[in-house]
Design goal:
Strand order of the largest sheet: 2-10-9-4-5-6
Radius of gyration: 13 Å
Largest sheet: 6 strands, mixed
Mean pLDDT: 94
Low-confidence stretches: none
Number of helices: 0
Strand content: over 45%
Shape: globular
Number of strands: 10
Length: 121
Amino acid sequence: QLVESGGGTVQAGGSLKLSCVVSGYSGYTYSSYCMAWFRRVGGKQREGVARIEKDGRPVYSDSVKGRFIISRDNTMKTLSLQMTSLTPEDSGMYYCTEVLCTSWYSAFNNWGQGTLVTVSS
């Protein structure tokens, strides 16, 4: 189960920090999975914005590079996304999920309810 939080309304140029708590079945090892944040704007398909590999290496989409920072805590089974210099184009529903490493493909098509980010101009 994936539970995202931290969304809200912020003015352009502002910051938000998103969090995701992961709980799995018995035997689920969070540290074994690469994780990512995706966002969906309107009716468009979800797009990957930040991914973190098992070794902690982050990967960002060009649209957020230099402004977002992804991090994970394997002990607490959490995933975070620090977002700065937000623009209205960053508005959308944000989701966390497990991904196939080195890719933007969801590993299990497992999605939480998401957390809504709205950036006003």
